[in-house]
């Protein structure tokens, strides 16, 4: 029996009112196409997960331009309920997500187009995407877990590349990307050090990751936290840093990375000031560090991550901090903006709660 297809969808668009306390997104009803373009699929969304970026853009802080009044968010999971006449890969019933940078299919494309910035994002109850920009998600995961993969998951996956088994990694902060990276790193046999500004969050993580006991550093209590990382690594430094602080933390990250190690520059959470980077070039050269920018990842990366997770049936329920109903998108964005979460905040859509 054919499912009756929706003719409209509910979407949140940014208000672009950046005043504290103002609503950051507004619910609107929009038409869906009467006929799907030949290579497109219609996705019924079950969960959207939030990233720092969503809160930052909603509050006017994004370092890159975004389309005015765009639809926020780039992490969603849903079910395909209809396909265009010419689709060849994705089928009705598939559990899928759109990729975050819809131009980045193999990692070799020169163009980029990020959801929720260069084009509309995914905070909606139905989505239409070309099938080439959509990936199948692991079938063993719940909708909430699956929604963490396309941006936060792929970013963590890309950031951890090129570190060998038994290597050491410093993961900064306890946000979504970092907690995903922690799971992947432990599953890959890496020695992990996690930093946080909160002893309470670190204590919770140590009780969750007790065998072997997780190494932790409080970067707020110990401003010279890189010294703690050097102590933990017998003065050598870690093989890889997942850098989320930006120019405020980069120099200290360089100081606690081993000679020839890697820094994956993922975030820009700290205050940006060129003055903080005075030592950058001498340190880079002296420590022979490979400093690389991470930009989520390609469709191929997403497929690879899903294969790896499926192979060991990795679950992600322990990194879901909290769930809000779709209608409470403003509250959820504010919660992330205040940094209250450990891990991920998700929104239940189409009755998923
Ligand atoms: N390049 C990419 O492709 C990509 C993709 C996704 C995200 N990002 C970026 O990566 C960063 C993290 O994103 P997210 O979504 O995981 O964020 P999130 O869930 O909001 O987590 C942020 C956490 O980072 C920690 N933090 C804040 N300021 C810090 C600082 N100065 N130094 C070290 N840690 C700090 C805090 O943890 P504690 O409370 O434990 O201190 C905070 O809770 C953001 O800048 C985001 O824009 C980049």
TrEMBL record:
<protein>
    <recommendedName>
        <fullName>Enoyl reductase (ER) domain-containing protein</fullName>
    </recommendedName>
</protein>
<dbReference type="InterPro" id="IPR052711">
    <property type="entry name" value="Zinc_ADH-like"/>
</dbReference>
<dbReference type="InterPro" id="IPR036291">
    <property type="entry name" value="NAD(P)-bd_dom_sf"/>
</dbReference>
<feature type="domain" description="Enoyl reductase (ER)">
    <location>
        <begin position="21"/>
        <end position="347"/>
    </location>
</feature>
<dbReference type="Pfam" id="PF08240">
    <property type="entry name" value="ADH_N"/>
</dbReference>
<dbReference type="InterPro" id="IPR013149">
    <property type="entry name" value="ADH-like_C"/>
</dbReference>
<dbReference type="InterPro" id="IPR020843">
    <property type="entry name" value="ER"/>
</dbReference>
<dbReference type="InterPro" id="IPR011032">
    <property type="entry name" value="GroES-like_sf"/>
</dbReference>
<dbReference type="InterPro" id="IPR013154">
    <property type="entry name" value="ADH-like_N"/>
</dbReference>
<dbReference type="Pfam" id="PF00107">
    <property type="entry name" value="ADH_zinc_N"/>
</dbReference>
<dbReference type="GO" id="GO:0016491">
    <property type="term" value="F:oxidoreductase activity"/>
</dbReference>
């Amino acid at each position: 029996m054919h499912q009756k297809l929706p003719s409209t969808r509910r979407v949140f668009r940014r208000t672009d009112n950046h005043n504290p306390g103002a609503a950051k997104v507004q619910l609107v009803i929009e038409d869906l196409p009467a006929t799907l373009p030949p290579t497109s699929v219609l996705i019924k969304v079950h969960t959207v997960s939030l990233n720092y970026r969503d809160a930052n853009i909603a509050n006017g802080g994004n370092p890159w331009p975004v389309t005015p009044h765009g639809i926020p968010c780039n992490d969603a999971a849903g079910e395909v309920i209809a396909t265009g006449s010419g689709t060849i890969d994705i089928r009705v019933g598939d559990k899928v997500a759109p990729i975050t940078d819809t131009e980045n299919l193999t990692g070799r494309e020169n163009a980029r187009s990020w959801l929720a910035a260069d084009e509309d994002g995914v905070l909606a109850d139905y989505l239409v995407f070309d099938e080439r920009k959509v990936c199948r998600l692991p079938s063993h995961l719940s909708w909430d877990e699956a929604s963490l993969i396309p941006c936060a998951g792929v970013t963590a996956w890309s950031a951890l590349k090129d570190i060998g088994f038994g290597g050491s990694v410093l993961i900064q902060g306890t946000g979504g990307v970092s907690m995903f990276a922690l799971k992947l790193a432990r599953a890959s046999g890496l020695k992990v050090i996690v930093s946080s500004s909160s002893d309470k969050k670190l204590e919770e993580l140590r009780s969750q990751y007790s065998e072997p006991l997780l190494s932790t550093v409080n970067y707020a209590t110990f401003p010279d936290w890189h010294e703690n990382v050097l102590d933990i690594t017998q003065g050598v430094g870690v093989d890889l840093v997942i850098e989320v602080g930006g120019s405020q933390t980069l120099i200290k990250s360089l100081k606690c990375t081993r000679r020839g190690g890697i820094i994956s520059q993922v975030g820009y959470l700290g205050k940006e000031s060129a003055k903080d980077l005075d030592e950058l070039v001498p340190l880079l050269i002296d420590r022979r560090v490979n400093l690389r920018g991470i930009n989520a990842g390609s469709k191929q990366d997403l497929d690879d991550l899903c294969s790896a997770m499926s192979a060991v049936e990795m679950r992600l329920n322990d990194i879901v901090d909290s769930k809000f109903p779709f209608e409470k998108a403003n509250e959820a964005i504010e919660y992330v903006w205040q940094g209250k979460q450990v891990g991920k905040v998700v929104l239940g859509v189409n009755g998923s709660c």
